[in-house]
């Protein structure tokens, strides 16, 4: 391979993104961490709850990944997600807490199972530990010292949103940040059928 050729693999991950107004509020908090606590790593992606952690995928094989995600999303129903307050993975990560509902746990488990069976895509670490849904606002470049300064400020802070999730999002790494690549809407036909019946 000569240097002028683009790499054949790109990094992706699959997530649930809150509505734009909620993303805006979460981004304000990320910017606060950047300005006050010198932690900007969380600004490299839109606010999200990860379902499938980052993985490498052949660009030529992207149609198969897209087909699998389309197929999966058509079998899902919209559900409510609740963000409530802050929590932490001490001593380096502060996040907006996500209510662990049966629908959220179910979609994550179903997605991982679907990707494994249809694409042989497996994230071994995720298989060996329970799913802990969270929306990160500071991590990686948050020093332990800054963590212990920020945590008392955020541990009892209020942040509450309840909203409908009706799609999953595929994000792609552009070399420095994560961009939205494509979105896959859930099957809302059943709701329409209920209205007609």
From TrEMBL:
Keywords: Ligase. Gene3D superfamilies: Cyclic phosphodiesterase. One of its GO terms (molecular function) is ligase activity. InterPro entries: 2H_phosphoesterase_YjcG-like, Cyclic_Pdiesterase. The keyword Ligase applies. The keyword Transmembrane does not apply. This is 2',5' RNA ligase. It comes from Crocosphaera subtropica (strain ATCC 51142 / BH68) (Cyanothece sp. (strain ATCC 51142)).
């Amino acid at each position: 391979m000569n240097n002028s050729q683009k790499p054949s693999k790109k990094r992706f991950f699959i997530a649930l993104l809150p509505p734009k107004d909620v993303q805006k509020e979460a981004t304000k908090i990320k910017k606060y961490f950047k300005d006050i606590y010198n932690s900007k790593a969380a600004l490299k992606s839109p606010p999200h709850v990860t379902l499938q952690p980052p993985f490498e995928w052949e660009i030529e094989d992207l149609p198969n990944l897209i087909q699998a995600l389309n197929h999966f999303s058509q079998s899902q129903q919209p559900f409510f997600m609740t963000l409530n307050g802050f929590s932490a993975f001490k001593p380096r990560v502060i996040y907006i807490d996500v209510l662990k509902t049966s629908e959220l746990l179910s979609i994550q488990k179903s997605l991982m199972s679907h990707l494994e069976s249809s694409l042989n895509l497996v994230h071994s670490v995720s298989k060996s530990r329970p799913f802990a849904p969270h929306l990160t606002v500071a991590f990686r470049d948050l020093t332990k010292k800054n963590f212990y300064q920020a945590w008392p400020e955020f541990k009892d802070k209020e942040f509450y949103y309840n909203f409908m999730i009706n799609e999953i999002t595929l994000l792609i790494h552009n070399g420095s940040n994560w961009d939205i690549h494509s979105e896959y809407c859930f099957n809302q036909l059943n709701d329409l059928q209920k209205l007609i019946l």
